[in-house]
Design goal:
The chain is of the alpha+beta class. The protein has 13 helices and nine strands. The chain folds into three domains: 167 residues, no CATH class; 69 residues; 121 residues, CBS-domain. Helix 2 packs antiparallel against helix 3 and helix 7 packs antiparallel against helix 8. 32% of the residues are buried.
Length: 400
């Protein structure tokens, strides 16, 4: 399930904002409104300072959105399905439903993001130059150069370098950063082995992540670190980014192993067959007494004749007061917007659909609309524990 809310649909891509985005929005606004802009413009009123700071935070996230949209649009042009973008506390993510089929597709999809951020940064600086002309900075009094700028040039003068830094950061050759994907595409092209390329790029991502973690902890302890500087807040933020990147690098490699393990496995090999179905006019009390209490099945396809009309599960039952069980029908509480799979669907497609919808089971329906079974997350995980790579479940991973 998606935390946050749906912002818009742009060029066929759904854009979601995660609630964690409020954290970084507040941090950017406060750091500019209480620190940077008052230092540059002590003569500004409080309203001007904070409005400019809030506008800078909004434009920063529009820049991140543009960065991710460039990934999505170029990826789709290269045949990679990217249905959604999520903006969250650490930036953004264009979510692919399947891996690229060729190294060139991944290269172009990955490199366009940093190039877009570079372009945004350069354009911002060019606009500043067009508005105020060349800015001469006195090394002995650098603040005086900024003091003469109005709110718009000040905002753009901050936004331009930030986007350039964002591009440089994303070009670090550690998976799953853009630079890591560029590295993986190059290694994939050289070796012809996607798994090996992913493992090497993932290792690079973990190494970079641990550099950030160590640097962040050192800053928390009061040390100044070359390149990163010092400061408790900066150190905490750096350590958190490193922790996130380390987890993402590990998860990305494991996701590839999962996809490979399930690539040729049809859902009929994993699904729960001979599932019990219920009718739409059945009362909730009968559903509980005659079905739920006598079976470990947690979801029941609702059929009218032989055709699927919906699914009712334990969560739907919990929403009904016990005193209303006799008067409430299954049709009143069932979910009608049900994703289904065909008998020829692959287990990898099933796992992706379960993850996207945040559910634990999906009905398998044949061409005539008849329910053949249920494919459950637990069945897929059980199959992976028996047939998947040892690295997926705590075994010894293969070595480089």
């Amino acid at each position: 399930m998606t935390r946050g809310f749906h912002l818009a649909r742009i060029a066929g891509v759904d854009v979601f904002l995660d609630w964690s985005l409020l954290i970084i929005f507040a941090l950017v606004t406060v750091s500019l409104g209480a620190g940077v802009f008052p230092l540059w413009h002590p003569e500004w009123s409080g309203a001007t300072t904070w409005l400019t700071a809030a506008a800078a935070a909004v434009l920063f996230f529009l820049s991140v959105l543009t960065h991710e949209l460039s990934h999505a649009l170029v990826g789709r042009a290269q045949g990679i399905p990217i249905p959604r973008i999520t903006l969250f506390v650490f930036g953004g993510m264009a979510q692919m439903t399947e891996e690229p089929k060729h190294w060139r597709a991944e290269f172009w999809m990955a490199i366009v993001g940093p190039l877009t951020s570079f372009a945004i940064g350069i354009v911002c600086l060019l606009i500043v130059g067009g508005l105020v002309g060349p800015i001469e900075i006195d090394p002995t009094d650098p603040q005086s150069a900024f003091a003469a700028l109005g709110p718009l040039p000040t905002l753009l003068l901050w936004l331009g370098p930030i986007n350039i830094l964002l591009a440089i950061f994303n070009l670090v050759p550690g998976f799953p950063l853009d630079g890591g994907r560029v590295l993986r595409s190059a290694l994939w092209g050289l070796t012809g082995d996607l798994r090996r390329a992913t493992r090497w790029a993932s290792n690079g991502g973990q190494i970079f992540a641990w550099v950030l973690i160590v640097a962040g902890i050192s800053m928390l302890l009061g040390f100044r670190v070359p390149v990163f500087g010092g400061g408790t807040v900066s150190g905490l933020w750096l350590a958190l980014i490193g922790w996130f990147l380390n987890n993402a690098a590990i998860a990305s490699y494991r996701q590839l192993l999962v996809t490979e393990a399930l690539a040729d496995v049809p859902v009929v090999r994993l699904m729960l067959g001979n599932v019990r179905t219920v009718g739409p006019d059945l009362s909730v009390r009968s559903l509980v007494d005659d079905y739920v209490m006598s079976s470990d099945q947690r979801a029941y396809p609702v059929v009218d004749g032989e055709r699927l009309r919906g699914v009712v599960c334990l969560g739907d039952i919990r929403k009904v007061a016990r005193g209303d069980w006799d008067s409430t029908r299954v049709a009143d509480i069932m979910t009608t917007d049900v994703a289904t799979l065909g008998p020829d669907s692959l287990a990898s497609d099933a796992l992706a659909a379960l993850g996207q919808r945040g559910i634990n089971q999906l009905p398998v329906v044949d061409r005539q609309g008849r329910v053949r079974g249920l494919v459950r997350r637990e069945d897929i995980l059980r199959w992976l524990s028996l047939h998947g790579d040892p690295a997926l479940h705590g075994g010894t991973p293969e070595r480089i």
